[in-house]
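Reopening this ticket.

The earlier resolution said the output was attached, but the attachment link was broken on my side. Pasting everything inline this time so it's all in one place.
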Amino acid sequence: MLKSEARKKYKIKRKELDDQLLTEISKGICLQFFNHFDFHNQLISTFLPISELKEIDTYRIIEEGIARGYHFAVPKIVDEFKLEHFEFNDRNTVEKNSLGIPEPIIGKNVAVSQIDVVLVPLLAFDSFGHRIGYGKGYYDRFLADCNSKTLFIGLSHFEVMNEPISDLHPLDCPLNYCITPTKVYEF
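Inline output:
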């Protein structure tokens, strides 16, 4: 399946989710995350949810993780196509940027080389661990800069696509895992 076709299809599917179902999806993903992984003493990069796009509520993972002693960093767009990461303190240190993306307004800068795990946003994924994002390439460039031991874990509202993505780009970085509300896929 072409990325453009899948992107269109999954944007519509996500838009059709009501708030209650979205809450249940986020709860399920959080439960799967903590049932399958233990990232003590590791730094986890996670996106912050864009509520208008009905993204996974990663605050659930962050808040439970902090209670368990986990450490988190969140991205900020610093130029047209680059993400920098900052230690996450609390929701009060976050504001939406001009694109409506929640970003840290203060915090200690974190080098990409320090990140052990990345929770990756996506619209859909295939059985080979390839993901479809929004099409701007922010995460593809960021993932390419991570060290070879960094784990990439997608968070998906929906189960795996039936068809593989047919128009992969050389910069596309496959996931190591993808978490849905009911399952953890390993690639």
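Reporter confirms the inline version is readable. The first helix runs from residue 3 to 15. The mean pLDDT is 94.
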